[in-house]
User: What shape does this take?
Amino acid sequence: MTTAQCVAMPNPPAVWCIVLAYNGIELTLECLRTLRAQDYANMHILVVDNASTDGTPAILRTQAPDVEVLEAGGNLGYAGGNNLGMRHALAHDADLLFLVNNDTRLDPHCVTALVEEIQRAPTCGVAGPMVYTWDNWQTISSAGGHVDWAAADAINVGAGETDQGQYPARSVDFVNGCGIMVTRQAIERAGLIDERFFMYWEETDWCLRIHAAGLDVRFQPAAKMQHKAPLTWEQQSPITLYYMGRNRLFFFARHGHGVQRVRVLAGATCGLIHGIVQNRRNGNRPASVAAQHALIDGLCLRWGRRPLVFS
Assistant: This one.
């Protein structure tokens, strides 16, 4: 991919692209190639390394010397790693922060389209792109997010559908954390990501807190990226199932109110019990144990990173 011609924009805000990496050096290098090809001029790239074991920091300093590397010193998860990067960027006068997973590829116009979406309204605190699957630029992974209170779930809208322009720019409950642009104002009002989540559900919680602070969360399909992530829970690893299940309880305990809170927590609890039983019946013991740990830790209010064994 060749470097795109920069789009002229009067007084373009300073965008810090924060790429969170935990191993997967080849994916990280590919992600960085697509970031360098962006048609947006005022951009700085920072890689936050969550204690990779594949030599990521050293390789980046050799093969990507134009990119700043910040080593976390340990695996801080999505929440802690991105918070580390955002504090660093804010201390260096960032106007906008674009959190990017290392297992993504970006269309050259992605950053510009997100900046333009944020600039359309002073009340916009977050903007997110159309996310496609890794295989092609037609199958949707996420066209914005919707919190389904009746089902006690968070839905990536359009997942698995072919993109036919059916999802316009609009306000959404949340955007997928693999690519989320946030304003300095949003962080000043709502704070950083809650590190008790460690990973999963944290961006949904963050977006709802930003909504509660009086700012909008927007989806912009003109911004496009691909994400190397499975679409269904059957494809998820036990550790992913654990954090998704446990943090689902945390999220609805925080954001539900009154009778609604009781209902959504009951729904999330029943979902975990079903996961324990169904996975055991299907012979998937690690997934069953993950759901069991998630239920126990969630009910016992044990958050953050947890030592886990799924045998």
In short: The longest helix spans residues 258-281.
